[in-house]
Amino acid sequence: MSTTIDSLADSQRRIEVPLRSALDRLDPHTRHCCGYHLGLWDPDGVPTGSMGKGIRPTLALLSARAAGAGDEIGVPAALACELIHNFSLLHDDVMDHDTERRHRTTAWAQFGIPAAILAGDALCSLASELLAEAPSSTAIWALRCVGASTRRLIAGQAADLDFETREDVSLVECLKMADDKTGALMACSASLGAVLADAPAELALGLADFGTHLGMAFQLSDDILGIWGNPERTGKPVLSDLRSRKKSVPVVYALQSDTDAGTRLKSLYFRPGELSETELSEAAELVETAGGREWTEQRADRELQEALAAIEALTIPAPIAHEFIALAYQLNHRDH
Amino acid sequence: MSTTIDSLADSQRRIEVPLRSALDRLDPHTRHCCGYHLGLWDPDGVPTGSMGKGIRPTLALLSARAAGAGDEIGVPAALACELIHNFSLLHDDVMDHDTERRHRTTAWAQFGIPAAILAGDALCSLASELLAEAPSSTAIWALRCVGASTRRLIAGQAADLDFETREDVSLVECLKMADDKTGALMACSASLGAVLADAPAELALGLADFGTHLGMAFQLSDDILGIWGNPERTGKPVLSDLRSRKKSVPVVYALQSDTDAGTRLKSLYFRPGELSETELSEAAELVETAGGREWTEQRADRELQEALAAIEALTIPAPIAHEFIALAYQLNHRDH
């Protein structure tokens, strides 16, 4: 849907200049690492055009517009969400030892762990600073929303790390982790512009509800792609989530399924040593046979439907509702 | 001076319960790592009594009282400063590979790097959250102060890391680094209670000025102790800063001194391989002969005098001025 692609591109245009100004507040080393991570330049500082999709800032800008506010409110909200998201990516890549993101070397792999830790710290702190400078009487509420979401991001990552060493992760725990790791900041992004615009609580809460379901749908689709996605499109190696023995939703569903396929998957997944290519393909088949793929796809669909219902329940201008809906569809039929 | 020791102990009493409540907002893994780092419990969760001195929260509580405000304002300011300080310690220990702090194993060495990164992130975010909840019409200004100080903390740590690989660090750069790494948060701590109490700008700025000089005096004394301190009292090995080839102020002064001792120090300091005990003692003597110790001690004295003058220039109740002054003396004649 061209409308949505436009709204992503449009939000990127609106936030790029203020994002660059925000980075200019940082010391040169930290600024350089942040700008590299954000895709503004390559390791030598040569400009590149490889910024992220900007889903969260787009949601935040839309949520300000939904509350009748302009960019003076939407942009600080959008920047705060984008900075918090990237702070978490910078630190997650260190913790997860990931060396590639968006087809580029990760910041820690390029500049070292200390630089990447400081860059993440700087983006986290800048997010609060920018919100505290917004021309709004409700900045303090926006800051509380961001604080609560950040705590949940951290809880989600802590759970994800904890799962690595456990064989008994339940589906409930796994869904809670996804909700914390992805849902919380999506809910914040989809409502922060409205909060900062002093919108009625009903509107802010409705938008947050949309974001929660959208985040969950998005994460579940991502879990599907992590096993069955086309590597050329996802930028990750084939069967990557199985290779790293990730406890994603389809896998946990299968492990807990009490089926023959689930039992066989358990013995494969929890044995020491790397899995061969044949074993990886077998594991993917076992997840599917045990019902993990179907359950996850259905749940993702349900979350998407609930997201759409949340938007439809709101009294907001039709063109803005349309953009939220188009964005939701786009994110859930993406193949990268 | 017993007054000061009382004021440190008193501030610890006032912040401990709200600090514990703040940690209770976190997921169990992150909470456990934060509480361990803060000295509330040992690795198994058994209560311990080894919290830090609490200089920053004491300053923040005093600054609220200086502006005529009570604990409802002083405590959130104190907690924010203590949390930001500990966020930076948690991450610095990871970056610097330090395995011991306050005679205990550092958090990353105990729980792993991911847990320590998340714990630091959580404390940084909690600091903003608590300030945003303070019953104050100027919380937004307090948040801006904390944001700006955090940026300078990060800049100081980035410079410190950069210095490790450079042989040409100037004294000006070195003093700037100390000001960013220690002065900025001390200035923030000494004024944040007043900012949050909506004090006149003159008072807030005067207190920040006090904190800046106090922080610098404190850091310079620390640099002296890092070379000539008594290991039993400092908790660090003898000559520790020389052993790790730290570019502290006395060392940089000596290296840049254009003296025979400075030249000899350079060839020792910049040669590959570990320094022997004899070489370490020689290096300490060379720093002293080149004038590094005397210059640093005199500069620390001057900073302390400027801190005291900043307090004396303010119109604040005499008992509070007395507490600030007593604290300043105590911090600068400490031998650990």
UniProtKB/TrEMBL annotation, chains A, B:
Query: Please, one GO biological process term?
Result: isoprenoid biosynthetic process
Q: State the Gene Ontology terms under molecular function.
A: metal ion binding; prenyltransferase activity
**Superkingdom of the organism of origin:** Bacteria
The UniProt entry, under Pfam families, shows:
polyprenyl_synt
Q: Which UniProt keywords apply?
A: Magnesium, Metal-binding, Transferase
**Transmembrane intervals:** none
PROSITE patterns listed in its UniProt record: POLYPRENYL_SYNTHASE_1, POLYPRENYL_SYNTHASE_2
- What is stated as this protein's family in its record? Belongs to the FPP/GGPP synthase family.
For this entry, the protein name equals Polyprenyl synthetase family protein
Record organism: Arthrobacter terrae
